[in-house]
Amino acid sequence: MLRYAVKRLLGTLPTLLVIITVAFFMMRLAPGGPFDKERRLPAEVEANLMKAYHLDEPLVQQYLRYLGNILRGDFGPSFQYKDFSVNELIWGGFPTSLYLGGVAILIATVLGVVSGTVAALRQNTGTDYSVMAGAMTGIAIPNFVMAPVLTLVFGLWLRWLPVGGWGSAWTQAILPIVALCLPQVAAIARLTRGSMIEVLRSNYVRTARAKGLPERITILRHALKAAMLPVVSYLGPAVAGIITGSVVIEQIFGIPGIGRYFVQAALNRDYTLVMGIVIFYGVLIILFNLAVDLIYSLLDPKVRYD
């Protein structure tokens, strides 16, 4: 398994290079620049800034210089956040996004798997219809709609929870976590239900029941493990996305995470910060997809990476 993991990581290097290349040239081709503001800088000052950040060099030379810095683990300085490097900004915002997204995906996985399993065991009953109706509603309503609704109801009308800020009280995390996890609960519940229904009709589950195994043992030991395979596949990119930070959620609730930095960097044409977050996000997706493949071998005995 270790050899397989190393080979997979080495095989992802071309993919990562493509991500870096496409993001680099797309950022440079976008209209505007990092020093374009409502009030233009004097030509001499702007020229000095361009030279200081090597933006006056040919584009290919800038690209090669950036690749060299990436190989050293240096994402460069931020153009807008003075006296901060991109590395400092990412690692400063990542713990917040990790906590927010980690708790959200954990809650979503537990609730989604439980509700999907219950719906599958009670297929075509009122319970099944209720769970699926809730799942469809959760999928249809995006979190940029759900977040303001939660803020309006629980923050302004009922005044139960704070609607913004971060760090002074644990209650500030409740609304953003709920807004993040609701769509994920819906998606995981639907995946679990469909997979569980298919597994319950398989021959080995019928054999386990025919042998007289208790239903609880049959479900937990045999059916649930196989039914989790499509859920695990979904969780790979979903975990990376939700942990990296929801752009909308962090903006709405004023949370200093990676997602909020990404929005501000894109608006301000902060090339290095946008590039750093894109690369960081790409690496997380690669690592979580590798973790999904390795978990497959634990859930399905037919899968081996020897």
Written description of the protein model:
The protein has 306 residues and is mainly alpha-helical. It has one domain: MetI-like (MetI-like fold), CATH 1.10.3720. It contains 13 helices and no strands. The protein has helices spanning 2-11, 13-29, 43-52, 59-71, 86-121, 126-140, 143-157, 174-200, 203-210, 215-244, 247-253, 258-267, 271-299. Helix 6 (126-140) packs across helix 8, helix 9 (203-210) packs antiparallel against helix 10 and helix 12 packs antiparallel against helix 13 (271-299). The longest helix has 36 residues, at 86-121.
Number of helices: 13
User: What name is given to the CATH topology?
Assistant: MetI-like fold
* pLDDT averaged residue by residue: 81
- What number of domains? 1
The number of distinct β-strands equals: 0
> Main beta sheet, described?
none
